[in-house]
Amino acid sequence: MTAWTMRRGKPSARASAVVQMRRDRLYDGELILVNKDHPVRRPAQQIVPVPDGILQASRREEPGILLERTCLALLSALLEACGGRTSIAVVSGYRSRAAQERLYATSLRENGADFTAKYVALPGASEHETGLAVDVGLYEGNVDYIRPAFPDRGACGVFKRLAAKYGFVQRYRADKTDRTGIACEPWHFRYVGYPHSVIMEREGLCLEEYTEFLKQYACGETHLYAGEGASLAEIYYVRAEEGDTPVPLPRASGARWRLSGNNKDGFVVTVYDPEGCDRHV
Ligand SMILES: [Zn+2]
After folding, report:
1. pTM to 2 decimals?
2. Residue 163: what are its φ and ψ, rounded to 5°?
3. Which of 17, 23, 190, 251 is 20 to 30 A from residue 181's alpha carbon, by CA?
4. Domain range for residue 227?
């Protein structure tokens, strides 16, 4: 087990080419914050079907579950790693705005206003509209579509312990309901990408808080370095401008990096160490 490191540091020399980022790029990427104050602004990108090798539990409510491509690849690796291929089912993935509207209306009718406000996001404010969120459930032949069981024992427990290593966080925790506005949902996982997932878990931050936390690592000032062993990712925040925003990115060929908007006011750049683990990107 290699040691986890998180530290502040000067910008590395890796970031050197400036790219002009259009303002609408603010609204996509794995770190976008989606909630009732920050609705989905752009159609989901790279949505693909969950393949037959992964259990799907909602043939009636959501036939042919879809997820964003990278989220699906890491979910598949996580299910393999936790031994959950035959016991954990995908219950819900990508939902179009129309599908979220139908779900909201049905839940209001069948479950009432209190339940719906707690467990079903308003159309536009659901992470499921990004393709980056997945509901999973213990597969026992029958799985509740809105509140699937996802206990701490067995493969589900291992899934929870390993999720952050694969870029996922439990998005709605019991101790964060005042920040997220959503009740505790042990079954709802959001793909934010590694090492952000591990930082959020270790620092105890929900995505509302993490979006603000990252702003202290302003580009060109103090950057954040985080990762396992010697393989640290470099992370920095670039505040968005009114028009195009100049964003410094690694110039070196072969450099691996990710850029994500935060759906609010800036961009987050993650530069992976050249020796870094491929599964994390
Ligand atoms: Zn969900």
Report:
1. 0.94
2. -50, -45
3. 23
4. 4-28+209-280
